[in-house]
Each structure stands twice: as structure tokens, then as C-alpha cells.
Design goal:
This protein has a 7-stranded mixed β-sheet, with helices on both faces. Strand 21 and strand 22 form a beta hairpin. The protein has 4 domains: 135 residues, Alpha-Beta Horseshoe (Leucine-rich repeat, LRR (right-handed beta-alpha superhelix)); 124 residues, Alpha-Beta Plaits (2-Layer Sandwich), CATH 3.30.70; 104 residues, Phosphorylase Kinase, domain 1 (2-Layer Sandwich); 198 residues, Transferase(Phosphotransferase) domain 1 (Transferase(Phosphotransferase), domain 1). It is of the alpha/beta class. The radius of gyration is 30 Å and the shape is flat. The protein contains 13 helices and 33 strands.
Length: 698
């Protein structure tokens, strides 16, 4: 297997000519800044090629039909380019071709696709604008292929005892040692080629010191992370079971990656299943029958359980009495007793403890009429506390609740985040098996609602103020929160507006901590919302503050256009990028895109600079994007230069607008609190446990 991986190397100039390397099997040139050009003609000379990836490589023109004739080609991925015209699939398509991905291009029509019966992906192309429900227009990952390899030559294992399987080496019954091997970067996509997996089987039994053929592979498929996953069953070389030392040896070789698979499989990790054969200590056969052993085990188990229950009941009564006594003076006294690994009471800064009864009362027993949102984490209810403060209560459903340590870390983190452009955490509830977070209630709805649903007139200057407030909140998270926080789900439905249209960034459900600020990024599974996702983060799974900057740039384009990021198969970033015309002194080429409510503002220099700043934020290269601090200063300057019309022409100086300016510790230019960096430990990925919720339409 020969592979050329030049993805995400910031390459410029012309696409390198690899036609002389006719032994190549895999080519990946994605995420580079090549000079705009057509698909290289030399691809058709690589007769051994099995995978071509050129996503985000500035490809233009039509797709050559000859590309699909390559005999060994399994997949071609050329999404996020400027490929246009008609996509024609010839009648002589290679029989190995499993996936064709041309999502996010400008293809206007298709021809001959009935010749192709595998996976075709064309979402977010003009051809899909009037047919969003057609299969190839659905936004999706390539098909996950799954099947079981059948490399053993034995008959049915029905004669084996429970928990045993047939050893393919001798067809005898034995207890196998099982686990999952997950390969993160295999250099192939086709799992129907059994020769590769026979090679994997062979290296397993040979390098693990097993009997020839004593390995069985099953459930081979690409999982939701696009990793190759294989269920592995290893059988003992002699007898019906492994002894303790053998299991330990094999587990060590796999878990520590001492075993090396064939190169085409690439790096892997191993997750072992528990090895619990029905044997007695020392590996000797029991003198009792299986039924006798089972009966003794059940009787002994019942006795042990009964003793445990009695002890637990007594302990519970003692603990309950202690909790009731302590809670009268300290609402956190029972925290450590709630779960043995929960640690001490949370160290909070301003957040308060609420009893379950308090929150139940202020929401009329969590009535449907109080529900204002819902999502994977649970539901959100509005309520009014006894002191008249209106709140939004996020209540976790039972299947989504995290453990006590994670919940504790999360509320400790959120209680430290204080800024007037962030939705504030007021308190929490951790009682009666409930996990609830209590936030301030923001009455003005989401930015998306105000742009479209609510019909609120948002003039240009109001939109600039909303952009400035949101940017200040994000800049605080990136540069003053301790440790810094990457929001990871910035979008117009996560920016709330109060009665005065002041913007507040909400919902830190997908947030990540940047505990190691020198590292500069966090490796993480891609999460977020379609249309706002940073393409570099999507491709590399390397999350940084610049991922938030990209999402904020999309929000800026929403403020300009009034459109959602993806409408009728069109992506606003691409639409604006293609339409910009510096020679158009009136509308910068955006007359057809700009929201009619602010069309007059499009003639101002501030509008043009705002669009330029937004396009810098959505640059495909994270390194080329500005920081949120820079965005704040730029938008402030725009507001200062805006003429009067909707009110004061001042943005409000960052250094003087917020409380605390001019006294105490020096203030950050876009902070409303004094700079008091304090240590914070143990939070880890605490905020990863609260998926976002969508606000229900009124």
C-alpha cells in the first residue's frame, strides 16, 4: 500500500503532479490553499488508486467522467470546492466505487446517476435547492458498511456450553478472549476485501503466540467516528480456556500496542471484554457438575445480597439523620454523601443551592406551560423565584445525567464565569436524583427569532451593537475565563437578547476547557451545528478558539443577510464570497443578499468593513482568522464612526463602559470584571455534559 497524505499542510501554488507515482493507492490533498484549478487530469493515469480526497482544495470546473472509470477506485471525496456544471456518471463506472462525495460545491444538475447504485453525496449544491428530500441531497456521512467475516471452517457452535465458541483452529469448543480493535486511520475504505482481514487474523495469531488459525474476526464496520472497528475473538492454543497469565500477556500486547497490525490498518486502540469463563481457581476442572456449581453460587449470592441490603438500610438511616441535621446550617453538607466519588462540596462564586421543592414550586410542578426549550440534555422551564426573580431552569433527563464529580466541576466552572454579555448561572439543584441548572431568564428571545420570527426591526446600528456584545462575551471566554473556554456551538439561536436588545451568549453545553493554553488546541470529537462548523476543525478534529471565531463570522453574515447559514441548499459563506464585488461602490456586490431592512446601510464604509471582517473570520485557515479581541476592537471602531440615527453614535468605550473601570486592578478592554486570575483544577471536560437545546417557537 502506497499513500500520499498532504492534507492540511498549508500548501500553495499549483496542485503537485503525482502522475509519475503510478503505484499510489491513496492520495489526500485536502485543506490546502492551492491556486484555483480544475481536477488534475493525471488522476486518470493512477490505475492503482483506491481513494482520492481533495476536499477544500479550491477545485473548479466540471468533474471529468473519466475519473469514475478507474478500476480500483473505492472512494472520491471532493467536497467544499467550486466544482460546477453537470455531474455525469458514465455507464462504465468502476465496480469497486463505494462513495462519491461532492457536497458543498456548485453543481447545477446530474446525469446518468442511475448507473451508480452506491453512496452519492451532493448536499448543499444548487442541484439540491428544489429537491432537499432526494437521497443524494441529504446531509450525511458516507454509508457505514457492516458485516461479519466468516473465516472459520467449522459448523454451528450449538454444542458448546454457554459463553463458549468454536475455536476456528480445531473446531473445538473453548472460551475466547474478546475485545474491539478500533483502527483510527486505515488506508482503505472497502471492508469487503477478505484478503486484508485474513492478513490481520494471521498476524494476530502469529505475533500473539497463538495456535495457527485461532483467531476469529466479526462485526467489521466503520463506526460513527469513521474509524474501522473489528470484533476480535482469540482462542487458547491448548485446552478450553486461557489462564490468568496468558490473558494478562495478550491484554498487555494489545492494550499497549506492542502488537503491530499490517501497515494498511494504521494505528489502533484495543478495548477488551471481561474474560469470565466458568472455571474454578487455578484453571482446574470443578469436581461438581455445572448445575451444582451454579446452585451453590446462587445460594451464596442470595445470602451475600441479603447481608448487604441490611447493612445498606442501616447505613442509609444513619446518613439520612446526619444529612437532615447538617442541612439546616449548610445546604452542601450532604454533597459528599450523595455519591462516594463526588468529593467535597463545590466551591462556588455567587451560585446558590436550590432545593427540588423550590424549583418544583416555581414551575408549577414543571408544567408544560412553563417549558421554553428542549434538547438531548433535557428540558428548560421558565419560573419565578419567591423573591420575584425570573429564571430559566435546565432539568436533565435521567438518561443524560452525568456523575456527581462532573456535575460539581461544571457548576464550579459556570459559577466563575461572570460577564454582562454571558447568560449568568444563578444556582443549581442536586437532590432527589435530579440535576438542574438555574440561569437568568433573558426575555427578548434569540437573535435568530428577532431576525426572522419575532419581526423585531433591527436596524444596522442595533445589529452592530448585538455583534459587539456577543463578541465581548466570547472574547471574555477565550482570554479572561480561568481556564479559558471554547464555546464550540456559537450560533444565532445561542445568542439571547434582553428587553434592551443587549446580547448575551448562552448555552455552554458543548464547551471545552483549554487547560493547557500552550498547546493551542484540543483534540476532540467534532460537535457543533451544521452551517457554523469550522471546516478545519471538522477535518482535523483539532479544536481551538479560532473555531469559535469561524462560527461567529457566520453569525455576522446572518446579521448582514437575515438568512440562516444554509437555506435551500445554499451556504451563506459561499454565497457572500462569490458575490463580493469591490468595484460595486453601492452594495459591494451584495444587493441580492443583504437583508432589505438594512439595504441603505450597505452603502456605508462601515458595512463594507463589517463584511470584510466577517470573511476574515470564516477564512478556511484558522491561522488567518482574527482573535475575538481583534473583532471586538474592529466592531467598536465601526460603531464609533456610525452616524447618529438609532441613538448615540458611540460604541461605548471598552475601557469605561463597564463597572469597575478606573479603579482596583486594571480592566481588560472587553471585560466587566477586574482581572483576578485564580487557579482552577480538575474541571477537565466538565462542560461536555450539557448538550444544547433549541428554543421552541412562540
Amino acid at each position: 500500500m502506497s499513500c500520499k497524505n498532504l492534507a492540511t499542510n498549508k500548501l500553495t501554488g499549483s496542485v503537485p503532479n503525482l502522475s509519475s507515482m503510478n503505484v499510489l493507492n491513496v492520495v489526500d490533498l485536502s485543506n490546502n490553499s492551492f491556486t484555483a484549478s480544475a481536477i488534475p487530469a493525471w488522476f486518470t493515469n493512477l490505475t492503482n488508486i483506491s481513494s482520492i480526497s481533495m476536499s477544500s482544495a479550491r477545485l473548479t470546473g466540471e468533474v471529468p467522467q473519466e475519473l469514475f472509470n478507474l478500476p480500483q477506485l473505492h472512494e472520491v471525496v471532493m467536497s467544499k470546492n467550486q466544482l460546477s456544471g453537470v455531474l455525469t456518471m458514465p455507464g462504465s463506472i468502476g465496480t469497486q466505487l463505494q462513495t462519491v462525495d461532492f457536497q458543498e460545491n456548485v453543481i447545477v444538475d446530474v446525469a446518468g446517476i442511475s448507473n451508480y447504485k452506491k453512496t452519492l453525496l451532493l448536499a448543499m449544491n444548487p442541484v439540491c435547492s428544489d429537491k432537499p428530500t432526494v437521497a443524494f441531497c441529504t446531509v450525511q456521512k458516507p454509508n457505514v458498511i457492516a458485516y461479519s467475516t466468516s473465516m472459520a471452517k467449522c459448523n454451528s457452535a450449538s454444542g458448546c456450553q454457554s459463553g463458549q465458541g468454536q475455536n476456528p483452529a480445531n473446531c473445538g469448543c473453548a472460551y475466547s478472549y474478546n475485545g474491539k480493535m478500533v483502527f483510527r486511520a486505515p488506508s482503505f475504505k472497502d471492508v469487503s476485501d477478505t484478503v486484508r482481514f485474513q492478513q490481520l487474523e494471521e498476524t494476530l495469531w502469529r505475533l500473539l503466540g497463538l495456535r495457527e488459525g485461532a483467531v476469529f474476526l466479526s462485526r467489521v464496520h466503520f463506526n460513527e467516528d469513521n474509524y474501522l472497528q473489528v470484533q476480535v475473538s482469540l482462542f487458547p492454543s491448548t485446552g478450553t480456556l486461557f489462564n490468568v497469565s496468558e490473558v494478562s500477556r495478550i491484554g498487555f500486547l494489545l492494550s499497549n500496542q506492542t502488537y503491530k497490525p499490517p501497515p494498511v490498518f494504521g494505528p489502533y486502540f484495543f478495548i477488551a471484554d471481561q474474560y469470565v469463563p466458568f472455571i474454578v481457581a487455578g484453571g482446574k476442572k470443578s469436581k461438581f457438575s455445572t448445575g451444582a456449581v451454579a446452585g451453590i453460587a446462587v445460594a451464596g449470592g442470595v445470602l451475600v445480597i441479603a447481608l448487604i441490603l441490611v447493612g445498606l438500610f442501616a447505613l442509609r438511616q444513619k446518613r439520612r439523620n446526619k444529612e437532615l441535621k447538617e442541612r439546616s446550617t449548610d445546604p452542601f453538607a450532604s454533597w459528599g454523601a450523595a455519591q462516594k466519588d463526588s468529593g467535597g462540596a463545590p466551591q462556588l462564586k455567587g451560585a446558590r443551592f436550590f432545593s427540588f421543592e423550590e424549583l418544583k414550586s416555581c414551575t408549577d410542578n414543571f408544567a408544560d406551560s412553563h417549558e421554553i426549550g428542549a434538547g438531548g440534555y433535557g428540558k428548560v422551564y421558565k419560573g419565578t423565584l419567591v423573591d420575584g426573580i425570573r429564571v430559566a431552569i435546565k432539568r436533565a433527563q435521567s438518561g443524560s445525567m452525568q456523575g456527581a464529580p462532573e456535575f460539581k466541576n461544571e457548576i464550579e466552572l459556570l459559577s466563575r464565569v461572570h460577564h454582562r454579555n454571558l447568560v449568568s448561572l444563578i444556582g443549581f439543584c442536586f437532590q432527589q436524583g435530579e440535576q438542574m441548572l438555574v440561569y437568568e431568564f433573558v426575555a427578548g428571545g434569540t437573535l435568530r427569532e428577532n431576525l426572522v420570527v419575532r419581526g423585531t426591526y433591527l436596524g444596522w446600528k442595533k445589529r452592530l451593537r448585538i455583534a459587539l456584545g456577543s463578541a465581548r462575551g466570547l472574547a471574555y471566554l477565550h482570554e479572561l475565563a480561568d481556564p479559558p473556554i471554547i464555546h464550540r456551538d456559537i450560533k444565532s439561536t445561542n445568542i439571547l437578547l434582553d428587553e434592551n436588545l443587549k446580547a448575551k451568549v448562552a448555552d455552554f453545553g458543548l464547551s471545552k476547557l483549554v487547560a493547557d493554553t500552550e498547546k493551542g488546541h484540543v483534540s476532540t470529537q467534532v460537535k457543533g451545528t451544521l452551517g457554523y462548523l469550522d471546516p478545519e476543525y471538522y477535518m482535523t478534529q483539532q479544536l481551538s478558539e479560532k473555531s469559535d471565531v469561524y462560527s461567529f463570522g457566520v453569525v455576522m453574515l446572518e446579521l448582514v443577510s437575515g438568512r440562516q447559514p444554509i437555506e435551500k441548499g445554499k451556504y451563506v459563506v459561499r454565497e457572500v464570497r462569490q458575490a463580493i464585488d469591490p468595484a460595486d461602490r453601492d452594495y459591494y456586490g451584495l444587493r441580492a443578499i443583504v437583508d432589505p431592512a438594512i439595504r441603505d446601510a450597505a452603502r456605508t464604509p462601515g458595512f463594507r468593513r463589517f463584511v470584510q471582517l466577517a470573511m476574515q473570520c470564516v477564512d478556511e485557515s484558522a491561522a488567518a482568522r482574527p482573535t475575538m479581541g481583534t473583532v471586538v476592537k474592529e466592531v467598536e471602531a465601526m460603531l464609533l464612526n456610525e452616524p447618529d440615527g438609532e441613538g448615540s453614535n458611540s460604541a461605548g468605550s471598552s475601557a469605561t463602559e463597564f463597572d469597575g473601570a478606573g479603579r482596583g486592578a486594571p480592566s481588560h478592554p472587553y471585560s466587566d470584571v477586574e482581572i483576578t486570575r485564580s487557579s482552577y483544577g480538575g474541571a477537565g471536560d466538565a462542560s461536555d455534559y450539557m448538550p444544547y437545546f433549541e428554543v421552541k417557537p412562540k
